[in-house]
Structure formats: C-alpha cells, structure tokens
Predict the structure.
Amino acid sequence: MDYSKAVPETIRKLIRNREFMMPTSGVASGYAQANLVILPKEYAYDFLLFAYRNPKPCPLLYVSDPGEKYLEKIAKGSNIYTDIGNYNIYNDGVLVSNVDNVDKYHRDDLVSFIIGCSFTFESELVNEGIKIPHMEKQANVAMYDTNIKLEDSGVFSGNTVVSMRPIKSKDVTKAVMITSRFSQVHGAPVHIGNPGEIGIEDITKPDYGDFVGIEEDEVPVFWACGVTPQNALRQSKIPFAITHGPGYMFVTDIKNSDLITY
Amino acid sequence: MDYSKAVPETIRKLIRNREFMMPTSGVASGYAQANLVILPKEYAYDFLLFAYRNPKPCPLLYVSDPGEKYLEKIAKGSNIYTDIGNYNIYNDGVLVSNVDNVDKYHRDDLVSFIIGCSFTFESELVNEGIKIPHMEKQANVAMYDTNIKLEDSGVFSGNTVVSMRPIKSKDVTKAVMITSRFSQVHGAPVHIGNPGEIGIEDITKPDYGDFVGIEEDEVPVFWACGVTPQNALRQSKIPFAITHGPGYMFVTDIKNSDLITY
C-alpha cells in the first residue's frame, strides 16, 4: 500500500486498528498533520492564552470542546484518543508513560489542542521547487533552544524552540513569501542568518534532531517549532497532560492548501 | 489643540481628566485605537475561544491578566477603567448604564479584551490613496447584520456583522491586498459584490451607521466588523460586562504600522 496516496480517514483507521504503527511523515500527501496537546479544562484558559500570545510556535488549528473525542469538524469519523500511533502521558510535567491508545484516559473535562505542524509548509516549499536538505537526506530537522522569550500565560512560559533549514541564498525570499502565507503552521521565519544572535552557540549541535550541514551557497533559516508548546507544557508541571509522541502526528482532513491565510 | 497630532498618552490623560469627551476618530494619528470588552474570568475562556474561532470579526490585540488595570504593555501609564470617554455596562446582556469612568467596578477577576478596530485599516487605505466615501462625507460607516454564522463557543454565538465601504472598481484589488496585511484589525474583506448572498436585503438600509450611496464605478466591499463581538456579548446574557461606548475607543501606543502581520 502506498500510504502517501491514502486519504486521511484510511490512515486514521489503520492506526486505530494498530495496522499502521510508524511515524506519519509522508502519509496522506496534501493533508495537514498536527501536534496534539490534551489537558484539563482547569488549565485550558492559560494554554489558549499562551497560544494566542505566541502564535508562531503555537499555531492552533482546532480546539475541542471539553470532553470532545470525535473531532468531526477536522477529521471525519476520528477519535483523537485512538487515532495517533504513539502518545506521551505526563504527570506533573514528567513523562510517565508512552502508549498507542489513550481511550481509557478520556474524561469530560479534557480539552484537545490541535496545533499546526511544519510538515505542511515543508511540502509547500518542496512543491515550489525549494530543496530541504534534511528531507533529501531522510534525516530529522535540526531544532535548537533559543534565547527568544515567550510571552507567559499563567503556568506556561519558556523560550521559543526553532527548527533550522539551510536554504539556497537565491531561494530565501521565496521561502519567506511561501511560509508567510501559512500562519497556522508556524508562518514566516523568526530569524535568518547568524545563529549566535538567538543564543545558538554551535549550529552543528542541535538540541533535538539532526544537523545535516550548511553549504557555501546556503543560509540557515529558522522557523518557530512545534516542540515549543510541549516544552512549556512539561515546564508547567501541571498534574496531567497527554501529547502525541514525536513524529506520530494526528492526520487531519484539512488540506494543506486550505491553510493559506486570507 | 490639534488632537490628531497628539501622542496617545496625552489623549488618554485628557480623557482620564474629563478634558476630552468626544468620539476618538482621528485623534493620535498613526496609532491603533481599540474596542474593549471586560468580563469575569468565569466567561473569559469561552470568549477567548470565541475570538480564536472567529478571528476576522474578533481580532485580539491584547488580553489582560485577571484584575490587570494598567495595560503598560500596550498603553504606557494607562488605566483601562478610566481612559475611555464612554463605557457601557451590561447586566444579563442588558445595557443598564452608560458612564465616563468605571474605576469603581474594578474586580480582581475581570479580564479586559482589547480588540482591533477598523480605524487602523481605514487610515492605511487612505494613506495609499483609496477613497473611503463615508470618511469624505464625515458620516459613520454602514454596518449590516448578515447570514454568516459564527463558530459558537460556550455562551457566545451569533452571526457576523459587516461594515461596507464602496470602493472604486480599479482600487478593489489594492484594498484587498492592503487590508489582508492587517489581520489584527479585521484583515481582508469577507465578501465583495452582491449583498444578497450574505443576507443583506436592502443595501440602502444599514442596520447600524449611515448609507452614503454606491456610485456606478464602485463595488460594495464588506469587512468583518467590531460590532460582532459586542452583539455576541449581549446575546450571551452573561451577568456582568463592560464595553466601550460606540465611537469612544481605547487609544493605544501600538503604531498602525506595527500591526502589519508577518
């Protein structure tokens, strides 16, 4: 089966039935994949305000009602508690469990935050002929902690985490223009050029992911990264939260092309 | 005194001292003016989610912490409870009082929502040479109830209210491009052309404001309007809320030019 050509509903069903248990990069091509944060309603206001105050690292695609499990509006026939292949469970900010189904944790006071993912803008960049080195080398994108302070909201705070893609100098303008149209999946770069200015001391040593080199004719381009809200979640030490496991995203019915901001 | 050339801090001080008690259109030129909604923390999550779900009619510029009174981050030396010339007070969705100072209503659980206002994009349109008929005729903009459903959130729901500006056919593209860059002040138009399609039966009879005619070479262009969240607030019938009085806006230190979305 060519998973890249499958529709999102098929992928979600395969995952639900434990028939597809791999990272979701490349599946259901053309459809937006998303990060997941589930937390109690008690903390939902602070988190929603945190996302509003920091829209680049925390771009919201959807916020569920408390207790909402079947996210029909963005994923037909879905169950957000079973349709991801890998979930992390946190108690007091500490990862306590990694499972492939969280249905038994469902509670009426839990709110799901569905957060945009860079897969969308990467596929748009590639469609427009821009080379993304880590994709060509089948590596993970390089990610770095920075000195870019986030706006606090209640228990949530921290610094922005960025992803870095080396982009050909001739393509940087195009990369800015394209990603600026996708504000719900991190939008335009937050920094272009000298890594030291945002507190990255050694660009060859990412805090997460893989460094794949920067060529003479390439410039390091930094986008806000979806790891940011998960870090803030851990640092908040709230009693209970669920997230997706890295690389195992929620495959939505939203078309990448529908995420262009008007 | 030429109020259009005054800085925002001066205008706010004059208002606080009851020395400037007129509508604020045209004052502190170049700075963003804003709509205000104050409501109890108990309803703040629903309202914040309502604004997130309906970003065009409810574009947030700032959300205060509960009890926050001096909005230093967007207005130096300000007091949001005294620095507007006219406030409306609502009990159970009913307007019960219209006053020039609400300092005595301050409570530690009240949250202020500062919402973008079309004055910002109108001044940008005028700066770029686009004629805005109601401004030239010193009338109020025409506003209409529509059949465009809002996304519900808790107690908040309703339809979008739009403002309409007749724009010269040759300038419509330019008006779209300019306003699309200002997503925090209603952004690009929601509808261009036939009013009937969005449920407006008689364009000559606005639900609010003044109809100033549409010339042969003009097209009606509709933007989401800041009256929308206030209508939703009234319809919600929540026990207590404060808003600004129409035309009496909060004058912030935010430059219009800083509201361009990147």
